[in-house]
Structure formats: structure tokens, C-alpha cells
Amino acid sequence: MIASFLKEHENLYYALTNKKVIVGLVLFLSIVLLALVGPMLTPYDYEGYAGMPYDPPSPNHWFGTTIMGRDVFTLTVYGLRSTLLVGFIAGTIATVVGCIIGFLAGYYGGSWFDEILMMITNIFVVIPQLALLIIISAFLKVRGIIVMSVIVSATAWPWTARAVRSQTLSLKNQEYVSLSRISALSVARILREDIASNMFSYVFMVFILQFNGTMLSTVQLEFLGLGPTRGVSLGLVMQDAVNWNAIQLGMWWWAIIPGLIITVMITSLYLVNTGLDAAFNPRLREA
Amino acid sequence: MSVPSSNDSILSVRGLTKVFYSGVFRRQATVAVKDVWFEMKPGTILSLIGESGSGKTTIGKLILKLIQPTSGQIIYKGTDIAHLKNKEQLRDYYRKVQGVFQDPFATFNPLYRVDRIFNMVYSSFGLDQGKKDEQVREVLESVNLDPDRTLGKFPHQLSGGQLQRLLIARTLLMDVDILIADELISMLDASTRIGILNLLVDICKSRGMSILFITHDLNLGYYISDYTLIMYKGRLVEKGDTKKIYENPVHPYTKMLFESVPDIHRKWDRSEEFLPEHVVQEVREFYAANEGRGFEDVEEEHTVLFSDR
User: Fold this and answer.
1) Is A40 part of any domain?
2) Which residues of chain B have a CB within 8 Å of the CB of A198?
3) Which of A74, A190, B207, B268 is 20 to 30 Å from A119 at the Cα level?
4) Do A93 and A152 touch, CB atoms closer than 8 A?
5) B26 reaches A (C-beta below 8 A)
6) What is the dihedral of CA B105, B108, B110, B115, to 10 degrees?
7) What's A24's domain CATH number?
8) Rounded CA gap, A171 and A148, in Å?
9) Which residue of A has its CA nearest to B99?
């Protein structure tokens, strides 16, 4: 039963037996689990006073407390939720917009339609990302998670569009597309089997990279004080820590732990990314 | 729409021209194929000979309807193929007109096993699925491939020659009228090559299939073809009966081609120079000397382009 299922979906089999994918997935899923379950494990409120300030990690406060007596574990797990959510939403927006524009531009490559799409894309490429983000963020009085995601994804999609376009351009000129055409395959089947399937692993990796990239951009903005106006996120926790000179005052747990979690999360996604690259490509499997 | 077709040809190419454009603001035109005329008769092999970039492959792609002509017509059995718009008509066309491309590695989708090329034929053209395994094995054996060692493999696990033979086997599965063979046997070793060529000639004569044999190899062209088309810079410069052209080349480019064929008993000699610029110069002088003449018959079944003006 399982064996026959894996035979049908051998890409899945190769993906799930790749060491990098396994390690990356385990790390990433445990962080997601932390974000999901964490808030249920903590008796404290992330905004309220939880105990003695300036407390190092202890059985009562696993990640210690801040200078104002807030529980760092509570802050981290709630912050993780919103950071993951922003990364997911913004990553999805950036990937979908980038893929649609890239796919259309590539498919109609060389036409005026392609030129216009690429002109728009190039305009977005040359705008300095952080500067634009700072300006947009500064103008908005109320910033929620959705608004943050849109702001971040606005500058994240162009490279995806360009990369997907060039992939589509080269794929549609492949001779195996010609062979499918003279085999009288329908356009839908050619797009699915010859173009999309050869780009699937690529698009999936684009999503992972976008997830990472947008999450980092969000944390950067939050760190500069331009994060969501309400709530908490990993970037905000770290900004607070820096504002209160946590490191200099010896409260390493306040700054280092949230930073470490972001680092592990991004590393795990890169591992999944490179592992999947090897798994999806039959030519790389046997190496 | 029916177009009156001359005599007994199955495919006629009339004034075929293809221009590629690039850029939007400063349009640059590349003339790949210009004003090409020829006919294909059932059961004959036509070789299309020319250097790289002369437009040979473009003609093949135009006939396979992979690209659209800028002007001119391709008439198959009395119908201009530009009018084949809907799916059924195209399917019927591809059931009878097939091609094998230059690069066997690029002709296989790397994500699928090689069996896919046969499966596509069976599913698209409504062949009897029940006989698939038997028929596929049969055609594989006819191109000297061991079915057990090729089926079920990924393209990267096979050699270029094996892949190319798989593609030839694919066309053998279908009862085609016209085969566009673009550098068909370039990847094969000498011994397999002769086998495949003889197989093609056999099928061509027994089933009445016509082959457009695109190549740059003159010896091969002579060996296999009944008619020869010589292309130079997108234009047909000489066409006609293979023997007549090989015995009596008239166009300077054709002459140069024949002189530059390496001969087994002749070593390379520094004094023989066939530099491209010499050819360009010679062709220009030839055209200038014959200005206003255009295509003319030099003998029966042997036509030469005397001047492009």
C-alpha cells in the first residue's frame, strides 16, 4: 500500500528521504509547533507584568524576563506567530504575483505585452527596497499584519517575475515542447507536463526563499520601529531589547534567543530548499 | 480551403519566407528563409543541404507548424496548413506529418521516463492501447534497441544515439506520409547509421513515405536522397535531381560545398582555402554577372538561382 503509493509519487519519496530535507523539515516544524503550542504553555500575558524583572532563564521563566518583568518565552512564542504569519502571507503574495507576471511575460515573450510587464518589473527592481518600505510604513498610521505583508511583498516580487519569465522563455523553446506539440498534445497538457512540472521545484523554492526574504524584511522594519503598531513580533522583541541595552546590561536571553530562533528557522528553510533541488531533479538524484 | 495542387506532389512549399523580429523600439529583422519553393512527392527522399544558420531547421519547423511563416504557403494534400486552426485538423495533420529534431537530449522532457514519447502517440492519435507493448517492442527492435534496456529509463540514463533511435522508433509507430528528419543520424555511430538509413529508405519505398532529410553532410545526402535542395543564407540556390546536382553543380556555393568535402585519399592542403569570405565574394560576383535572371532550369530537373535581384 505505502510502497505502491510511493512508486506513484516518487518525487515525494525522493524528497522525504533526502537528509537535508529531513533535518530542515524537523527544525522548521518544531518551530511552527512552538508557535502553535507555545502560547498554551505559558500562564503569562505578553504585554503584562509576569514576574521579577531582569531574571535569567529559570523553571518559572524559561527564556528569562525583560527589564520590565515581561516573560521572554511568552513574547517569543506570540511574536513567532505573527512573524510566521507575515512571512507566509507576504511570501505567498510575492510568489503568486511574481509567477503570474513572469509566466505571462515569458509565454508572450518578445511581444509588447512582455515589454510592458518587464518595464513595470524593472521599475520595481531599481527602487531601493528598504527606503521604499520605510517611506510606506512611515505614512501608514495603523499597521496590522496584513498591511505589513502587503508592504513587504510589494518590493519582493520583481526578482521572482524576472526569474520565472526567463525560465518560461527557455522552457517553451525546448525541443520536448515541440515534440509534445507534434504529438498533438493540448496546450493545457503541455503547460502542465512540460512547462509547469519543470518549473514546479523552482517555484516551490522561490516560495521558500520569498518566505525567508519577506520574514527578514519584516523583522528589519520592526527592528527600525516600523513594525505593526499593535501586537508583538520577533523583530519588535529584538528592537525592544536593543532599545533597553539588554546585551550591555547582561540580559543576553532577551536579544539572543529570539534572534537564534529566526536564524534556525531561516537555516532550516534553506536546508529544505537545497534538499528539494536535489530531490526533484532526476539528474541530481544518483549523485 | 482547397488550393489546386500541381501534379502528384503531396506537399508543396510556395514562396515560403520567415523573418524573425527582435526588439520593440529598434526592430531588427533577421531573414531566416526567403522565397523558398519546392515539392515533395510520395515515396521520395529530399535532402535539404546547407551550412549552419542557412535556414534548414527553420524550414522543417515551418512545415511542422511549430512556427508561423511570414509569407508564402505550405500546401499539404491541397490544403494550406496555415488554415489548420482547430485541434482536430491539427491532430489529423500531425498523424501524417512528423518530425525528428536535431538534439535528442533536448527532445525528451527530463522529468519523465522515455516511455512517455510512445504513450503520447497512443493517447493523442487514438492508437490501440492493447497492442502498445507489443508494437513498441517491435519498432524498438527494428532500430536495434533492446526494449528491456531502454524502456522505463530516464533520458539522462541513455546515450544520444539511443535517444535518437527511440525518436525514430516513435515515428515508425505511426503511418506517416511525411517525415521531417533534422540531422536525424548525427548522433549515431557509422555502423548504426547505415542500418537506420537503409531502414528509412525501405519504409520510404514500401509505405510511400516522403522524407525531408535535413543535413549538412553531402555524402549522406547523396547516399539517401532522390532530390537535393541546396540552401545558402536562407535561399534555395540549387535544386533538382540528386545525381544531376552532384555531377554538375552550377551555383558557386554548391561548387564550394563539393570541393570542401574531405576525401578519404586526400590529406589537408594549406593552399586550398575555402574561407567564408571567399564564398561570399564569389556568390556576389556570380549574382552580379547574371543580374536579372533569377531561377532558371539548366537541364531537366535541375534548377539554379542565378541572381537574387
Assistant:
1) yes
2) 109-111
3) A190
4) no
5) no
6) -130
7) 1.10.3720.10
8) 35
9) A182
Range of the domain at A112: 11-51+61-249+256-285
Contacting A residues, span 177-196, partner chain B, CB-CB under 8 Å = 178-186, 193-194
Element (H, E) at A130: helix A129-139
Q: Which chain B residues are Cβ-neighbours of A194 within 8 angstroms?
A: 109
A184/B61 CB distance under 8 A = no
Homologous superfamily, domain B11-305: P-loop containing nucleotide triphosphate hydrolases (3.40.50.300)
d(CA A246, CA A255): 7
Whose grid coordinates read 508494437? Answer: B135
Whether the CB of A139 is below 8 Å from some CB of chain B: the reply is no
Contacts of A112 in chain B (CB under 8 A): 24
Residue window 43-72, chain B: list those with CB within 8 Å of chain A.
61, 64, 66
Q: How does residue B5 score in pLDDT terms, banded at 50, 70 and 90?
A: very low
The residue written with cell numbers 530531490 in the block is A279
Taking the CA atoms of B27, B32, B38 and B43 in sequence, report the sign of the dihedral they define. Answer: negative
Number of domains in chain A: 1
pTM: 0.73
Q: Which of A65-74, A120-129, A278-287, B59-68 has the lowest mean pLDDT?
A: A278-287
Burial class (CB in 10 A: 0-12, 13-18, 19+), A168: buried
Of B99, B103, B156, the CB nearest to A182: B99
pLDDT at B46 over 60: yes
pLDDT tens, position by position, A208-251 = 888 888 888 888 888 887 777 777 888 888 888 888 888 888 88
d(CA B77, CA B58): 21
